[in-house]
Amino acid sequence: MKKDYYQAGLIGLGMGLVVFLGWNQVNLIPFLLIIGVVAGLYFLSQGKVGRGFETVGNVASVNCESNISFNDIGGQEVAKRELLEALDFLRLEEKIRQLGIRPLKGILLTGPPGTGKTLLAKAASQYTNSVFVAASGAEFVEMYAGVGAQRVRQLFSKARQLAKKVGKKSGIIFIDEIEVIAGKRGSHTSHLEYDQTLNQLLTEMDGLKPRQECQVVVIAATNRLDMLDPALIRPGRFDRQVKVDLPDREGRLRILEIHAQAKPLAAEVNLEEVAQDTYGFSGAHLESVVNEAAILAFRQEELEIRTTHLREAIDKVLLGEKLDRRPAAEELRRVAIHEIGHGLMSEILRPESVASLTVIPRGKALGFMRQTQKEEQYLYTAAYLQDQIAICLGGAVAEKAVYGHWSTGAANDFEQATDQAKQLIEAGLSRLGIISKDYMEKGKFQEVMTEILEEQLQRVGKIIAERQGLVLRVCEELQKRETVSGEWFRGEFGRKEEISKIN
Fold it and tell me: Which are the catalytic amino acids?
């Protein structure tokens, strides 16, 4: 407050001096230039450096108390156990001191976006009864030299001051998107400010003394572990790396149950089925599914969220909102045949794998076949990858069987099929055996990939040709309904002698 009074007094004195000199007909241009330069320098030093970090350092943007607990986070049991073990070193200070254990200085959370890294950091502050100070990597770096380094110092200083102010012995600093300031040094050849900021962070983390009055732990989050400087992720700085991965089916069910607690679900809703249908979804996706289902129920003036709302919400989260445009009748028929081709191959090769078929345009897709997966799978055999290629090619082959050629709508399918073939070769599952792409004869890789794709095209063509009548029959119904469930689809193709016949 006194500083503000001094600043106001100096400004008033300066204005009075200018008026006095002007009254005495003194040339004011040199004085005004000097004042302008001084004011500009003061603005850069005070406005940009001194107070430029108020987005983090301001008390209004710092959460001294976190109301998020680990019980509020589902689907990350392994990550939570590993994080809790690390945090116990902070909670049980006296016990670890007796055992001579060095307190952890940093915990690095890695994993895809939307998996709950920020929530875990907030829960950590609540679990350890620590103050919580959060910042994003993008807030540290500007065009002004030294700004990022000073902001790092301010961040650590703020955490200690807040802990002392509220009577706590520890503080947690959370830095999201740390790869922005912690990239490998030397990679930013045109901007050394990044390296200076990282150097300051390394210094601050090394300066954390085990027995200082306030223990500060840095929790950082990134989905680009490969970009980080080795000096940052070595033991003694970030001592623990906790993998926060996409949830499995049990984890997805737990997340859905948490987000559905305050929402009125109809008795017909089975969250286990929803969890099965959302393979590959992150926690953020699942929260969005439940929220979008509630919005759909609100639009339809329903008092409860029904299964149809959840199914449509899954499609919306995957592909986007329904589009107003509608294809012409013949184009709609082609889209239906294309999606039925995917669905037919999926059901033949992986029974009960189709969740729904739709010809309603969403996002960039004119139609969509959504699959479900009964069990989580982490390793893939040659047979699995070949079947996946066949499913990708099913739409184009179905079009060709009916029209004599396929359309541009199969472009994305071909891209996925090519990726699967590439994975098959690089894993040593092709006729080439174990290979290195870098040492292969030019054109050999493409030759083998073409062979794999051509083999599956022949295979799919034979299967669909034998069932072309079924494809056309279901096509008429799909055009009328626009969306059909996997159960209905299996009922139409439910003749076991037809479905189980694999060629």
Answer: 339
Residue 34's contacts (CB-CB under 8 Å, 6 or more residues apart) are: none
Q: Is the dihedral of CA 146, 226, 252, 218 positive or negative?
A: negative
Task: Give per-residue burial for 250-267: e unless 16+ CB within 10 Å, then b.
Answer: ebbbbbbebbbeeeebee
> Token digits for 418?
């090519």
Contact (Cβ atoms closer than 8 angstroms) between residue 187 and residue 237: no
Domain ranges within the chain, ordered by starting residue: 2-51, 59-243, 249-319, 329-499
The model's pTM:
0.74
pLDDT digits (tens, 9 = 90+) for 45-73: 554 444 444 444 443 345 545 578 888 88
CATH number for the domain whose boundaries are 249-319: 1.10.8.60
Strands, E assignment, 376-445: none
Burial 390-415 (b: 16+ CB within 10 A, else e): bbbbbbbbbbbbbeeebbebbeebee
Structure tokens at 498: 């037809």
Class (C level, CATH) for 329-499 = mainly alpha
For residue 198, how many other CB atoms are within 10 A of its CB? 26
Question: What secondary structure does DSSP assign to 19-44, as a single string?
Answer: HHHHHTT---HHHHHHHHHHHHHHII
- Domain 59-243 sits in CATH at 3.40.50.300
